[in-house]
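Lab notes, practical 5.
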Amino acid sequence: MSAVTSSPRPRRVLVVEDEPSLVVTLTDRLEAEGFSVVATGDGDRAVDLAAEGGVDLVLLDITLPGRDGFDVCRDLRQRGFSAPILMLTARSQTVDKVVGLKLGADDYLTK
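Output from the prediction step:
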C-alpha cells in the first residue's frame, strides 16, 4: 500500500487594489509563480478577508475607496495579523513611506 500524501497548499496572496488592470496583471503573474490569489478593491473587505485567515502575504495599495491602505494596515496589525504586508502604491513621498512602515507594513514599493 502506498501512503497518500497531500501536497502543501499554495501560498495565498491578498491583492488589495482598486485598479482592475493592475489586479489582472498581478494575479496573472502571481498565479504563474504558483501562488493562489484573492483580490479586492475595497479596504473594508480586505480586513475581512485577512481576518478569515489563510493569507500569507498582503499586497496593499493606499488609495482605496472606504478604508484606505494605511487604515487597513493599522487595523490588521492591531488585530494580530502577522503575515507580511507590502504596500504597493503610486504614492512615492517619503512621508507616506514612513507612515506605512510605522503602521506595520514590512516594505513599501512605488508602482
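Observations recorded by the TA: Residues 21 and 27 are 10 Å apart (CA to CA). The two ends are 52 Å apart (CA to CA).
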